[in-house]
Design goal:
Blueprint: H1 3-14, H2 34-140
């Protein structure tokens, strides 16, 4: 049997039996050296606890590093998104300005054609209108 099995068997014998409490409980005396017998267990537990602390510390450090990297990446993504949004906005604005300029040019061209037709019609009709005005003035003779 291993030392641990021997120790567990010995401690099992020292445990009170199930049922009503006994009047005398067998407890190992300090002279029996139980603490020396279980010392190897506590040394192993101390080593496990120290390793757990080391793992916990390393995990926290890695988590902090991952979080810092994530924050830096988030900042980079936000900066890239802001730049892309500015580019898209400027492209959209330029497109709308160009469309408005084309519409304005078309309206002005149409207005110039209309004005030219009105002026041409006015020039053509002016002699007849002046003639009619003169005829009515002469006919009215005051």
């Amino acid at each position: 049997m291993s030392a641990l099995s021997d120790l567990l068997e010995r401690l099992r014998r020292l445990r009170p039996p199930p049922g009503a409490p006994a009047t005398v409980i067998a407890v190992p005396s300090a002279a029996e050296g139980v603490e020396r017998e279980v010392a190897f267990l506590f040394e192993a537990l101390d080593a496990v606890e120290a390793r757990a602390r080391d793992v916990r510390h390393a995990a926290r450090a890695e988590a902090s590093s991952i979080e810092a990297d994530a924050l830096a990446r988030r900042s980079q993504i936000l900066a890239e998104a802001g730049s892309q949004a500015d580019r898209v906005w400027n492209d959209l604005l330029a497109g709308r300005r160009a469309a408005c300029q084309r519409e304005t040019d078309a309206i002005l061209a149409d207005a110039r054609r209309t004005a030219a037709r009105v002026l041409a019609h006015g020039r053509a009709a002016t002699p007849a209108v002046v003639g009619e005005v003169v005829r009515r003035i002469e006919a009215a003779e005051w």
